[in-house]
Amino acid sequence: MKDIILGASHITDLSGLDHILFLIALAASFDLTKLGRMALLATAFTLGHSLTLLLAGLDVVRSLIVYIEVLIPLTIVITAALQISGLSLVTSSKFAKNSIYVITVLFGLIHGLGFSSFYRISTSGDSSFIIPLLKFNLGIEIGQLVILLVTLSLFSLGRALGIHERSQQLVVGGATLSLAMIMVIENWPI
């Protein structure tokens, strides 16, 4: 149970705002009517994140955190920029709809690298880390679903109040882009 709680707290912790911002940027053109599609995107993110942690637990992958701390907010910048550009992850071409899953998995890999050093150290010498890893990632998935339910509920409320999808994309994309750019600047290796 502690691994599930650790996973959920990892994704919802405000000191790890990057995960929350990424999910919000990804959801910028959604509302509750698209919860299923957004949940699939969140699961794609978790798959990438999980793969990185698995490789870290096996001591196959190590990362230089100074570069990862810049790459993580860059994933948010790119996601927000896609939203600002008008790409609707709901109504775009089939190619755009499918490629966003690949992009989300890749960005999950990068976000996982940010936690991989800690995870590798915490599982060091423990050959039975697979079950705790699965529980941890279940916690991440639960945490993401909570974030998405709150976010998409707010977006649905906005839609009920007359806010159009494009306006939502611009405002949410712009806000997440601005915050992520600040994170990029703060973490830029000198």
Itemize the secondary structure elements and their pairings.
Elements (H helix, E strand, L loop, with lengths): L1 H11 L4 H10 L8 H23 L7 H20 L9 H29 L7 H31 L4 H23 L3
Question: Please, could you describe this protein's structure?
Answer:
The chain is mainly α and 190 residues long. It has one domain. 77% of the residues lie in helices and 0% in strands. It is built from seven helices and no strands. The longest helix is centred in the C-terminal third of the chain and has 31 residues. The radius of gyration is 16 Å and the shape is globular. The N and C termini lie far apart (41 Å).
Quick structural overview:
This protein has 190 residues and is mostly helical.
Largest sheet: none
Number of helices: 7
Low-confidence stretches: none
What percentage of the residues does DSSP assign to strands (E)?
Answer: under 5%
Structural class by sheet pairing and helices = mainly alpha
The secondary-structure element order is: HHHHHHH
Distance between the termini: 41 Å
Query: Percent of residues in helical segments?
Result: over 70%
> What is the residue-mean pLDDT, rounded to a whole number?
87
Evaluate the radius of gyration. 16 Å
The shape, in one word, is globular
Give me some keywords for this one.
single chain, 190 residues, mainly alpha, 77% helix
